[in-house]
Amino acid sequence: MKRSLLLLVLLAASQGALAQTTPSAENGRTVFAKWCTPCHGADIVTGELWGRAPAPGTAALQLKYRGELPAVLEERTDLTGEFIETVVRGGLFGMPITRKTEISDSELEDIIAYLTKGDAG
Ligand code: HEC
Questions:
Q1: Which end of the chain offers a freer environment for a tag, N or C, measured as fewer CB atoms within 10 Å?
Q2: d(CA 32, CA 37)
Q3: What's the CA dihedral at 25, 31, 37, 39 to 10 degrees?
Q4: Cβ atoms within 10 A of the Cβ of 108, count?
Protein backbone atom coordinates (compact mmCIF):
# COMPACT_ATOMS: atom_id res chain seq x y z
CA MET A 1 0.00 0.00 0.00
CA LYS A 2 2.69 2.45 1.04
CA ARG A 3 4.86 1.46 -1.89
CA SER A 4 2.14 2.09 -4.45
CA LEU A 5 1.52 5.47 -2.90
CA LEU A 6 5.19 6.29 -3.26
CA LEU A 7 5.06 5.19 -6.89
CA LEU A 8 2.08 7.44 -7.53
CA VAL A 9 3.88 10.41 -6.01
CA LEU A 10 6.97 9.72 -8.13
CA LEU A 11 4.87 9.35 -11.26
CA ALA A 12 3.05 12.61 -10.61
CA ALA A 13 6.33 14.39 -9.96
CA SER A 14 7.93 13.11 -13.16
CA GLN A 15 4.91 14.09 -15.23
CA GLY A 16 5.03 17.56 -13.75
CA ALA A 17 8.65 17.79 -14.83
CA LEU A 18 7.77 16.62 -18.35
CA ALA A 19 5.05 19.23 -18.69
CA GLN A 20 7.59 21.92 -17.91
CA THR A 21 10.12 21.11 -20.61
CA THR A 22 10.80 24.15 -22.76
CA PRO A 23 9.07 24.19 -26.16
CA SER A 24 11.13 22.90 -29.06
CA ALA A 25 11.24 25.14 -32.14
CA GLU A 26 12.79 22.22 -34.01
CA ASN A 27 9.81 19.96 -33.30
CA GLY A 28 7.59 22.95 -34.07
CA ARG A 29 9.04 23.06 -37.56
CA THR A 30 8.18 19.38 -38.07
CA VAL A 31 4.61 19.76 -36.79
CA PHE A 32 4.17 22.94 -38.84
CA ALA A 33 5.38 21.16 -41.98
CA LYS A 34 2.76 18.45 -41.49
CA TRP A 35 -0.27 20.51 -40.44
CA CYS A 36 0.28 24.06 -41.65
CA THR A 37 2.53 24.07 -44.72
CA PRO A 38 -0.17 22.61 -47.01
CA CYS A 39 -2.01 25.94 -46.57
CA HIS A 40 0.78 28.27 -45.45
CA GLY A 41 3.70 27.18 -47.62
CA ALA A 42 4.93 29.48 -50.38
CA ASP A 43 3.08 27.56 -53.05
CA ILE A 44 1.56 24.20 -53.92
CA VAL A 45 1.61 22.04 -57.02
CA THR A 46 -1.87 22.14 -58.53
CA GLY A 47 -1.26 19.74 -61.39
CA GLU A 48 0.39 19.64 -64.78
CA LEU A 49 -2.01 22.09 -66.39
CA TRP A 50 -1.68 24.97 -63.95
CA GLY A 51 1.71 24.34 -62.41
CA ARG A 52 2.30 26.02 -59.06
CA ALA A 53 -0.10 28.34 -57.24
CA PRO A 54 0.02 30.07 -53.85
CA ALA A 55 -1.15 27.84 -51.00
CA PRO A 56 -4.66 28.84 -49.83
CA GLY A 57 -3.57 30.36 -46.48
CA THR A 58 -0.74 32.24 -48.20
CA ALA A 59 -3.13 33.49 -50.90
CA ALA A 60 -5.61 34.68 -48.23
CA LEU A 61 -2.87 36.52 -46.31
CA GLN A 62 -1.62 38.09 -49.55
CA LEU A 63 -5.09 39.57 -50.05
CA LYS A 64 -5.45 40.53 -46.38
CA TYR A 65 -2.18 42.43 -45.99
CA ARG A 66 -1.53 43.41 -49.63
CA GLY A 67 2.22 43.08 -49.23
CA GLU A 68 2.45 45.07 -45.97
CA LEU A 69 3.30 41.85 -44.14
CA PRO A 70 4.84 38.69 -45.63
CA ALA A 71 2.12 36.31 -46.86
CA VAL A 72 4.19 33.28 -45.87
CA LEU A 73 3.68 32.77 -42.10
CA GLU A 74 7.22 31.54 -41.52
CA GLU A 75 8.56 34.90 -42.76
CA ARG A 76 6.52 36.92 -40.26
CA THR A 77 8.26 38.52 -37.27
CA ASP A 78 5.17 40.12 -35.69
CA LEU A 79 3.27 36.99 -34.61
CA THR A 80 2.64 36.51 -30.88
CA GLY A 81 2.02 33.19 -29.14
CA GLU A 82 -1.38 34.33 -27.95
CA PHE A 83 -2.53 35.25 -31.48
CA ILE A 84 -1.27 31.98 -33.00
CA GLU A 85 -3.00 29.94 -30.28
CA THR A 86 -6.28 31.84 -30.72
CA VAL A 87 -6.28 31.31 -34.49
CA VAL A 88 -5.21 27.64 -34.36
CA ARG A 89 -7.76 26.68 -31.67
CA GLY A 90 -10.57 29.00 -32.74
CA GLY A 91 -10.13 29.29 -36.51
CA LEU A 92 -10.31 32.52 -38.52
CA PHE A 93 -12.48 32.82 -41.65
CA GLY A 94 -10.96 30.24 -44.06
CA MET A 95 -8.60 28.93 -41.40
CA PRO A 96 -10.07 25.78 -39.79
CA ILE A 97 -9.88 25.05 -36.05
CA THR A 98 -7.31 22.45 -35.03
CA ARG A 99 -8.30 20.05 -32.24
CA LYS A 100 -6.07 18.92 -29.39
CA THR A 101 -6.32 15.37 -30.74
CA GLU A 102 -4.64 16.64 -33.92
CA ILE A 103 -2.10 19.03 -32.41
CA SER A 104 -1.57 18.71 -28.64
CA ASP A 105 -1.04 21.75 -26.43
CA SER A 106 2.67 21.00 -26.19
CA GLU A 107 2.97 20.62 -29.98
CA LEU A 108 1.22 23.98 -30.33
CA GLU A 109 3.79 25.45 -27.92
CA ASP A 110 6.48 24.03 -30.21
CA ILE A 111 4.85 25.62 -33.29
CA ILE A 112 4.70 28.93 -31.42
CA ALA A 113 8.37 28.66 -30.49
CA TYR A 114 9.15 27.98 -34.15
CA LEU A 115 7.04 30.81 -35.59
CA THR A 116 8.06 33.39 -32.99
CA LYS A 117 11.71 32.29 -33.05
CA GLY A 118 11.50 31.76 -29.30
CA ASP A 119 10.17 35.28 -28.67
CA ALA A 120 6.55 34.33 -27.99
CA GLY A 121 5.57 37.70 -26.42
C1 HEC B 1 -6.97 24.53 -44.66
C2 HEC B 1 -5.97 25.54 -44.79
C3 HEC B 1 -5.23 26.00 -43.54
C4 HEC B 1 -4.51 25.24 -42.66
C5 HEC B 1 -4.32 23.73 -42.66
C6 HEC B 1 -3.92 26.18 -41.73
N7 HEC B 1 -4.29 27.45 -42.02
FE8 HEC B 1 -3.77 29.13 -41.00
N9 HEC B 1 -4.91 30.25 -42.24
C10 HEC B 1 -5.61 29.77 -43.34
C11 HEC B 1 -6.30 30.89 -43.99
C12 HEC B 1 -7.14 30.80 -45.24
C13 HEC B 1 -5.98 32.04 -43.23
C14 HEC B 1 -6.44 33.47 -43.47
C15 HEC B 1 -7.64 33.78 -42.60
C16 HEC B 1 -8.16 35.16 -42.88
O17 HEC B 1 -8.73 35.35 -43.94
O18 HEC B 1 -7.98 36.04 -42.04
C19 HEC B 1 -5.11 31.60 -42.15
C20 HEC B 1 -4.60 32.44 -41.16
C21 HEC B 1 -3.72 32.05 -40.18
C22 HEC B 1 -3.16 32.96 -39.19
C23 HEC B 1 -3.49 34.44 -39.03
C24 HEC B 1 -2.49 35.29 -39.76
C25 HEC B 1 -2.95 36.71 -39.78
O26 HEC B 1 -2.09 37.60 -39.68
O27 HEC B 1 -4.16 36.98 -39.91
C28 HEC B 1 -2.33 32.21 -38.41
C29 HEC B 1 -1.51 32.71 -37.22
C30 HEC B 1 -2.36 30.86 -38.90
N31 HEC B 1 -3.22 30.80 -39.98
C32 HEC B 1 -1.64 29.82 -38.38
C33 HEC B 1 -1.75 28.49 -38.80
C34 HEC B 1 -1.04 27.40 -38.19
C35 HEC B 1 -0.03 27.53 -37.07
C36 HEC B 1 -1.46 26.27 -38.83
C37 HEC B 1 -1.06 24.84 -38.54
C38 HEC B 1 -1.37 24.38 -37.20
C39 HEC B 1 -2.42 26.67 -39.84
N40 HEC B 1 -2.57 28.02 -39.79
C41 HEC B 1 -3.07 25.79 -40.70
C42 HEC B 1 -5.66 28.47 -43.78
C43 HEC B 1 -5.09 27.39 -43.13
A1: N
A2: 6
A3: -120
A4: 22
Q: What are phi and psi of 103, to 5 degrees?
A: -125, 115
**Atom number in ligand 1 closest to CA 38:** 5
Expressed in angstroms and rounded, the spacing between residue 20 Cα and the centre of ligand 1 is 27
Ligand 1 mutation target, pool 62, 88, 95, 106, most atoms within 8 A of CB? 95
**Calpha distance 23→32 (Å, rounded):** 14
Provide the CA 74 distance to its chain's centre, in angstroms.
Answer: 10
Kindly indicate the confidence band of residue 6, based on its pLDDT and cuts at 50, 70 and 90.
low
For residue 31, count other CB atoms closer than 10 A to its CB: 19
Q: In percent, how much of the chain has pLDDT > 70?
A: 80
